[in-house]
Design goal:
Belongs to the ATP-dependent AMP-binding enzyme family. Among the domains are: 295 residues, 3-Layer(aba) Sandwich (Rossmann fold); 102 residues, 2-Layer Sandwich (GMP Synthetase, Chain A, domain 3), CATH 3.30.300. The protein contains 18 helices and 32 strands. A hairpin with a 3-residue loop joins strand 30 and strand 31. The longest helix is centred in the first third of the chain and has 17 residues. The structure holds 5'-O-[(S)-ethoxy(hydroxy)phosphoryl]adenosine (WTA). The site of 5'-O-[(S)-ethoxy(hydroxy)phosphoryl]adenosine has 22 residues, from helix 10, strand 20, strand 26 and strand 27.
Length: 630
């Protein structure tokens, strides 16, 4: 890992022509960062003070390593800040959500007042089904306004939501329902993807077998004739809305009450349920939306993620709504009916801030410039990226073709665990292609060696956060040991699990994961989860998976499989295995290559050494193999 890394990639510095008055309102980075360093608590208190609290906090921060509390004894409800605050005043008729379906013309618009009312009604519907503060609700939905309504309704009454991305399969959903002990599942009959229906409810039916915590399933029925609901367990979304009262006061939440659980891939065993709390998360999501994205009154903001990922939680729902923005969401995929559809959406709705992933940018590069050129993208003023490294080629293309060489490109580094943006280049600051940038004001980050000493510029090391921040995760659900690991591996710092390198100006280039996580098209996959899916197939005795470079998806999954006696390698079996993984975890986890092998490299303690497989695959030095079993 350590050693010199070529930072020449970043030699080019891009300074976008700043349009008048549109640099970041934080001011220049040096001044804003110094202001934060002088008084970190004062800095965050000032941000929190821009929001409304039912009861002020006693202390900004309480840090008993590795456990933090922020805005101690403060009381709030995040939906009050996302909805009531705007719905009651001059903003009531401002558009909160614009939804665009797969078909052109398939649209829905909700003002702040309308969204507020929908949320209150669904909150009452949940209450009518016996959901209360502290109960867990699992949301497994397509990207429709009701998905966001369901999230906010949970937050309204203090229920903890656990959103599972609609692209996950039955066994992934099942594991998440069980771990979180979800009482209610909110789902839809179908989602639409490339003109085809994805039968979500059927997947739920399979996932709830052996999930005794589940009391009810609420189903949004989008197709006609309506899908039949069978047991008493199942209730119709519209019916329970119709039966519910319109007004629901916000539950008074302590700043440290949990807001949601979101599962992210772990390196071993089951996915980790990352727990975020109400107060600190709200402040972090609001601050970064307002000041990193630099939202203005007339912005139309579009983040292409799904609310099922942290990017959607923080930058479709909680952050932008707390900032009072107009948020565009869409069920469309980037290449259907053709690769011009997203650019037409930008033109049609006058999108000003656009936030997407490197995998999408690389896909558009492949389709060619002619597609974006067919639409006017002049409305854009800030474009962002998240999920994996934005390589310099992709940066240049994004900056020139999409941003018209006039928009800041914000390559934002952060994680499910961090809850909010941590490292990026603020609007108006010089950008370096290949580098995410410097820690934002409010965040203390560094690149260090295994002992925690800062490494020299140009030398690779571990990316760490050296001080707590408001939106940091508070726990890994039911697994304190794993939570503690984050803060105890390197010198008491928070270790992100990423490798990085810094340059002389303190700009950080993120190189990729240091552990067994594969990022496919921006989605985190734990090797363990894919391996256990493979092993659940009758023909498989043992499996190991690694990430291999993929021009489009960043990384792709390659699987090494040992067959059980009596099963012979064949092309047919390969496709069966791919299909099997698809059904159990979802399309993102599908191996793009499978190799049948006789044995796997293991340590003496029996751990599969994936880095040896990877080194073989890439023709590189596997590093220290002293623990390798013969
Ligand atoms: C990677 C997504 C390079 C990184 C918000 C991190 C990035 C993991 C970037 C978290 C970026 C995210 N540059 N790598 N701008 N953003 N990553 O939890 O490896 O889904 O640890 O959160 O994605 O993924 P997660």
């Amino acid at each position: 890992m350590d050693g010199n890394v070529d930072v020449k990639r970043g030699e080019r510095v891009v300074r976008p022509p700043p349009s008048p008055g549109e640099g970041s309102r934080l001011g220049d980075w040096e001044t804003a960062y110094a202001r934060y360093r002088e008084d970190p608590e004062g800095f965050w208190a000032a941000v929190a003070g821009e929001l409304e609290w039912f009861r002020p906090w006693d202390r900004v921060r309480e840090w008993r390593h590795p456990y933090a509390r922020w805005f101690v004894n403060g009381a709030l409800n995040i939906t009050h800040n996302c909805l009531d605050r705007h719905a009651s005043g001059d903003h009531r008729n401002k558009v909160a959500l614009i939804w665009r379906g797969e078909e052109e013309g398939d649209e829905q618009v909700l003002t702040y007042r309308q969204l507020h009312r929908e949320v209150m009604r669904f909150a009452n519907a949940l209450k009518n089904l016996g959901v209360g503060k502290g109960d867990t609700v699992c949301i497994y939905m397509p990207l429709v306004p009701e998905q966001i309504v369901a999230m906010l309704a949970c937050a309204r009454i203090g229920a903890v939501h656990s959103i599972v991305f609609g692209g996950f399969g039955a066994s992934a959903l099942h594991a998440r329902i069980r771990d979180a002990k979800a009482k209610i599942i909110v789902t839809a009959d179908v989602g639409y993807r490339r003109g085809k229906r994805v039968a979500l409810k059927t997947i739920v039916d399979e996932a709830v077998v052996n999930a005794p915590s589940v009391e009810r399933i609420i189903v949004l029925r989008r197709t006609r004739p309506e899908l039949e609901l069978y047991s008493e367990l199942e209730v119709d979304y519209e019916e329970c809305m119709a039966a519910a009262d319109a007004f629901c006061p916000p539950e008074v939440m302590d700043a440290e009450d949990p807001l949601f659980i979101l599962y992210t891939s772990g390196t071993t065993g089951t996915p980790k349920g990352i727990v975020h709390t109400c107060g600190g998360y709200m402040v972090g999501a609001y601050y970064t939306s307002q000041y990193v994205f630099d939202m203005r009154e007339n912005d139309v903001y579009w983040c292409t993620a799904d609310p099922g990922w942290i990017t959607g939680h923080s930058y479709i729902v909680y952050g932008p709504l707390a900032a009072g923005a107009t948020v565009l969401i869409t069920e469309t995929v980037p290449d259907h009916p053709d690769p011009g559809v997203w650019w037409r959406i930008i033109e049609d709705f006058g999108v000003t801030i656009f936030y997407t992933a490197p995998t999408a940018i690389r896909m558009f590069m492949k389709f060619g410039e002619e597609w974006p050129k067919r639409s006017s993208l002049d409305s854009l003023r800030l474009i962002g990226s998240v999920g994996e490294p934005l390589n310099p080629e992709a940066f240049e293309w994004y900056y020139r073709v999409i941003g018209g060489s006039a928009c800041p490109v914000l390559d934002t580094w952060w994680q499910t665990e961090t809850g909010m943006h941590m490292i990026t280049t603020l609007a108006g600051e010089p950008m370096k292609p290949g580098f995410a940038g410097r820690p934002i004001p409010g965040v203390a980050a560094d690149v260090v060696d295994r002992e925690g000493n800062p490494v020299q510029p140009g030398v690779g090391g571990l990316l760490v956060i050296t001080e707590p921040w408001p939106a940091m995760m508070r726990a890994v659900h039911n697994n304190d040991e794993r939570y503690r690991q984050y803060w105890t591996t390197v010198n008491g710092y928070y270790t992100a699990g990423d490798l990085a390198v810094k340059d002389e100006d303190g700009y950080i280039m993120v190189l990729g994961r240091a552990d067994d996580i594969i990022i496919v098209a921006g989605h985190n996959l734990g090797t363990a989860e894919v391996e256990s899916a493979l092993v659940s197939h009758e023909a498989v005795a043992e499996a190991a998976v690694i990430g291999i470079p993929d021009a489009l998806k960043g990384q792709a999954v390659k699987a090494f499989v040992i067959l059980r006696l009596g099963h012979a390698p064949s092309e047919k079996l390969k496709s069966d295995l791919v299909y099997h993984v698809r059904m159990s975890i979802g399309p993102i986890a599908m191996p793009s290559a499978i190799e049948f092998v006789e044995s796997l490299p293991k340590t003496r303690s029996g751990k599969i050494m994936r880095r040896v497989l990877k080194a073989q695959e890439m023709g590189i030095d596997p590093g220290d193999i002293s623990t390798l079993e013969e």
